Amino acid sequence: MNKLSKQRTYTMTILAYPGMTMLDAVGPNEVLANSPYFDVEWVSTSKQPFTNDLASFNLSGLRYFLDIDKTDILLIPGGPGEHAVMQNEAVIAWVKKIDKTSVYTTSVCTGSLILAKAGLLNNRSASTHWGCLDELTALGANTSRKRYIQSGKYITAAGVSAGIDMALYMLKTLVSTKHSRDLRFGIEYFPNQIHVISSYTLPRFALRKLSARFGQFYTKTRLRFRADE
Questions:
Q1: Can you give the C-alpha Rg of the chain in angstroms?
Q2: pTM of the model
Protein backbone atom coordinates (compact mmCIF):
# COMPACT_ATOMS: atom_id res chain seq x y z
CA MET A 1 0.00 0.00 0.00
CA ASN A 2 1.34 3.40 -0.98
CA LYS A 3 2.09 5.69 1.93
CA LEU A 4 -0.27 8.63 1.86
CA SER A 5 0.86 12.22 1.92
CA LYS A 6 0.62 13.55 5.46
CA GLN A 7 -0.47 16.95 4.12
CA ARG A 8 -3.83 15.79 2.80
CA THR A 9 -7.23 15.46 4.45
CA TYR A 10 -8.74 12.00 4.68
CA THR A 11 -12.43 11.29 4.30
CA MET A 12 -13.88 8.81 6.76
CA THR A 13 -17.35 7.31 6.43
CA ILE A 14 -19.07 5.62 9.37
CA LEU A 15 -21.94 3.28 8.57
CA ALA A 16 -24.87 3.70 10.98
CA TYR A 17 -27.70 1.18 11.24
CA PRO A 18 -30.54 0.19 13.59
CA GLY A 19 -29.22 -1.63 16.64
CA MET A 20 -25.67 -0.31 16.42
CA THR A 21 -23.58 0.26 19.56
CA MET A 22 -22.97 3.98 19.75
CA LEU A 23 -19.52 3.99 21.35
CA ASP A 24 -18.23 1.79 18.51
CA ALA A 25 -18.75 4.77 16.23
CA VAL A 26 -18.67 7.73 18.60
CA GLY A 27 -15.25 6.76 20.01
CA PRO A 28 -13.40 6.88 16.67
CA ASN A 29 -15.50 9.88 15.62
CA GLU A 30 -14.42 11.84 18.70
CA VAL A 31 -10.76 11.11 17.99
CA LEU A 32 -10.66 11.64 14.25
CA ALA A 33 -13.16 14.49 13.89
CA ASN A 34 -10.99 16.48 16.29
CA SER A 35 -8.11 16.20 13.83
CA PRO A 36 -7.83 18.78 11.03
CA TYR A 37 -6.63 15.95 8.78
CA PHE A 38 -9.96 14.08 8.81
CA ASP A 39 -13.43 14.82 7.50
CA VAL A 40 -15.82 12.39 9.20
CA GLU A 41 -19.31 11.69 7.91
CA TRP A 42 -21.96 9.24 9.04
CA VAL A 43 -24.23 7.51 6.54
CA SER A 44 -27.29 5.40 7.27
CA THR A 45 -28.65 2.11 6.00
CA SER A 46 -32.17 3.47 6.60
CA LYS A 47 -33.97 6.50 5.24
CA GLN A 48 -36.19 6.45 8.32
CA PRO A 49 -35.21 7.45 11.89
CA PHE A 50 -33.98 4.56 14.01
CA THR A 51 -32.53 3.81 17.42
CA ASN A 52 -29.30 2.31 18.67
CA ASP A 53 -29.05 -1.01 20.51
CA LEU A 54 -30.15 0.46 23.84
CA ALA A 55 -32.91 2.62 22.33
CA SER A 56 -31.24 5.60 24.03
CA PHE A 57 -30.40 7.49 20.83
CA ASN A 58 -32.64 8.41 17.92
CA LEU A 59 -30.68 8.80 14.70
CA SER A 60 -32.10 10.70 11.75
CA GLY A 61 -31.07 13.14 9.04
CA LEU A 62 -28.01 11.13 7.97
CA ARG A 63 -27.11 10.71 4.32
CA TYR A 64 -28.28 7.48 2.77
CA PHE A 65 -25.41 5.03 2.33
CA LEU A 66 -26.00 4.55 -1.42
CA ASP A 67 -25.34 8.27 -1.95
CA ILE A 68 -21.67 7.65 -1.12
CA ASP A 69 -19.56 5.82 -3.68
CA LYS A 70 -16.07 6.20 -2.23
CA THR A 71 -14.17 7.20 0.88
CA ASP A 72 -10.62 6.96 2.16
CA ILE A 73 -11.58 5.14 5.36
CA LEU A 74 -14.68 3.03 5.87
CA LEU A 75 -15.65 2.25 9.45
CA ILE A 76 -18.24 -0.37 10.34
CA PRO A 77 -19.39 -0.33 13.99
CA GLY A 78 -20.86 -3.34 15.75
CA GLY A 79 -23.98 -4.00 17.76
CA PRO A 80 -26.83 -6.52 17.80
CA GLY A 81 -28.23 -5.02 14.60
CA GLU A 82 -25.25 -6.34 12.67
CA HIS A 83 -26.99 -9.59 11.69
CA ALA A 84 -29.72 -7.67 9.87
CA VAL A 85 -26.99 -5.75 8.03
CA MET A 86 -25.26 -9.01 7.13
CA GLN A 87 -28.50 -10.19 5.51
CA ASN A 88 -28.95 -6.97 3.54
CA GLU A 89 -27.52 -7.69 0.10
CA ALA A 90 -27.52 -4.03 -0.91
CA VAL A 91 -25.40 -3.05 2.10
CA ILE A 92 -22.95 -5.92 1.61
CA ALA A 93 -22.58 -5.00 -2.07
CA TRP A 94 -21.95 -1.38 -1.06
CA VAL A 95 -19.29 -2.39 1.46
CA LYS A 96 -17.52 -4.37 -1.26
CA LYS A 97 -17.74 -1.42 -3.65
CA ILE A 98 -16.37 1.09 -1.15
CA ASP A 99 -13.60 -1.32 -0.19
CA LYS A 100 -12.29 -1.45 -3.77
CA THR A 101 -10.95 2.10 -3.54
CA SER A 102 -10.60 2.67 0.21
CA VAL A 103 -7.24 3.24 1.82
CA TYR A 104 -8.35 1.54 5.02
CA THR A 105 -11.43 -0.57 5.65
CA THR A 106 -12.03 -0.81 9.39
CA SER A 107 -14.42 -2.11 12.00
CA VAL A 108 -15.10 -1.97 15.72
CA CYS A 109 -16.51 -4.82 17.80
CA THR A 110 -18.88 -7.05 15.78
CA GLY A 111 -18.58 -4.76 12.79
CA SER A 112 -15.90 -7.22 11.70
CA LEU A 113 -18.64 -9.81 11.19
CA ILE A 114 -20.07 -7.56 8.49
CA LEU A 115 -16.67 -7.25 6.82
CA ALA A 116 -16.23 -11.01 7.03
CA LYS A 117 -19.69 -11.58 5.56
CA ALA A 118 -18.59 -9.44 2.61
CA GLY A 119 -15.62 -11.80 2.17
CA LEU A 120 -13.04 -9.16 3.04
CA LEU A 121 -11.41 -10.93 5.99
CA ASN A 122 -10.87 -14.40 4.53
CA ASN A 123 -7.67 -15.82 6.03
CA ARG A 124 -6.84 -12.44 7.53
CA SER A 125 -6.05 -11.74 11.17
CA ALA A 126 -8.99 -9.87 12.66
CA SER A 127 -10.44 -8.91 16.01
CA THR A 128 -13.96 -8.56 17.37
CA HIS A 129 -15.81 -8.58 20.69
CA TRP A 130 -14.59 -11.47 22.85
CA GLY A 131 -18.06 -13.02 22.84
CA CYS A 132 -18.08 -13.39 19.05
CA LEU A 133 -14.59 -14.71 18.31
CA ASP A 134 -15.85 -18.15 17.27
CA GLU A 135 -18.48 -16.56 15.05
CA LEU A 136 -15.83 -14.50 13.28
CA THR A 137 -13.71 -17.62 12.83
CA ALA A 138 -16.67 -19.40 11.21
CA LEU A 139 -16.86 -16.55 8.70
CA GLY A 140 -13.32 -17.21 7.52
CA ALA A 141 -11.13 -14.87 9.55
CA ASN A 142 -8.12 -15.77 11.67
CA THR A 143 -9.29 -14.35 14.98
CA SER A 144 -7.03 -12.32 17.22
CA ARG A 145 -7.54 -11.24 20.82
CA LYS A 146 -5.52 -8.08 20.36
CA ARG A 147 -7.02 -4.69 21.14
CA TYR A 148 -6.83 -3.94 17.42
CA ILE A 149 -4.96 -5.54 14.55
CA GLN A 150 -4.02 -4.58 11.01
CA SER A 151 -3.87 -7.01 8.10
CA GLY A 152 -3.07 -5.23 4.88
CA LYS A 153 -5.47 -2.33 4.60
CA TYR A 154 -7.93 -3.89 7.04
CA ILE A 155 -7.90 -2.74 10.67
CA THR A 156 -10.28 -4.39 13.10
CA ALA A 157 -10.77 -3.46 16.75
CA ALA A 158 -12.04 -5.56 19.62
CA GLY A 159 -15.12 -4.65 21.67
CA VAL A 160 -16.67 -1.19 21.89
CA SER A 161 -14.05 1.06 23.56
CA ALA A 162 -11.25 -0.52 21.49
CA GLY A 163 -12.30 1.71 18.61
CA ILE A 164 -10.69 4.65 20.39
CA ASP A 165 -7.34 2.85 20.42
CA MET A 166 -7.75 1.97 16.75
CA ALA A 167 -8.48 5.59 15.85
CA LEU A 168 -5.40 6.82 17.74
CA TYR A 169 -3.37 4.21 15.85
CA MET A 170 -4.67 5.57 12.54
CA LEU A 171 -3.67 9.09 13.59
CA LYS A 172 -0.19 7.82 14.36
CA THR A 173 0.03 5.93 11.06
CA LEU A 174 -1.45 8.53 8.73
CA VAL A 175 -0.28 11.73 10.40
CA SER A 176 2.32 11.41 13.16
CA THR A 177 3.01 9.99 16.59
CA LYS A 178 2.99 13.51 18.03
CA HIS A 179 -0.41 14.27 16.53
CA SER A 180 -1.85 11.07 17.97
CA ARG A 181 -0.33 11.84 21.36
CA ASP A 182 -1.70 15.39 21.32
CA LEU A 183 -5.23 14.17 20.49
CA ARG A 184 -5.02 11.54 23.22
CA PHE A 185 -4.09 14.25 25.68
CA GLY A 186 -6.91 16.45 24.45
CA ILE A 187 -9.59 13.84 25.06
CA GLU A 188 -7.92 12.70 28.31
CA TYR A 189 -7.75 9.06 27.27
CA PHE A 190 -5.26 7.37 29.56
CA PRO A 191 -6.66 3.91 30.36
CA ASN A 192 -4.67 1.34 32.26
CA GLN A 193 -4.84 -1.53 29.81
CA ILE A 194 -2.84 -3.94 31.98
CA HIS A 195 -5.27 -6.04 34.02
CA VAL A 196 -4.70 -9.36 35.74
CA ILE A 197 -8.15 -10.52 34.62
CA SER A 198 -9.47 -9.22 31.32
CA SER A 199 -10.85 -10.50 28.04
CA TYR A 200 -7.30 -10.35 26.70
CA THR A 201 -5.69 -12.45 29.44
CA LEU A 202 -8.27 -15.12 30.32
CA PRO A 203 -7.50 -18.63 29.02
CA ARG A 204 -9.50 -19.40 25.89
CA PHE A 205 -11.52 -22.16 27.61
CA ALA A 206 -12.62 -19.71 30.31
CA LEU A 207 -13.47 -17.10 27.73
CA ARG A 208 -15.61 -19.65 25.85
CA LYS A 209 -17.65 -20.28 29.00
CA LEU A 210 -18.32 -16.56 29.30
CA SER A 211 -19.03 -16.39 25.57
CA ALA A 212 -21.73 -19.05 25.88
CA ARG A 213 -23.55 -16.97 28.46
CA PHE A 214 -22.99 -13.80 26.46
CA GLY A 215 -24.30 -15.56 23.34
CA GLN A 216 -27.63 -16.39 24.96
CA PHE A 217 -28.18 -12.74 25.84
CA TYR A 218 -26.85 -11.41 22.55
CA THR A 219 -29.00 -13.71 20.43
CA LYS A 220 -32.13 -12.42 22.14
CA THR A 221 -30.98 -8.85 21.59
CA ARG A 222 -30.28 -9.48 17.91
CA LEU A 223 -33.86 -10.62 17.40
CA ARG A 224 -35.01 -7.06 18.10
CA PHE A 225 -33.28 -5.92 14.92
CA ARG A 226 -34.40 -8.42 12.31
CA ALA A 227 -33.76 -7.79 8.64
CA ASP A 228 -37.46 -7.29 7.89
CA GLU A 229 -37.85 -4.36 10.28
A1: 17
A2: 0.88
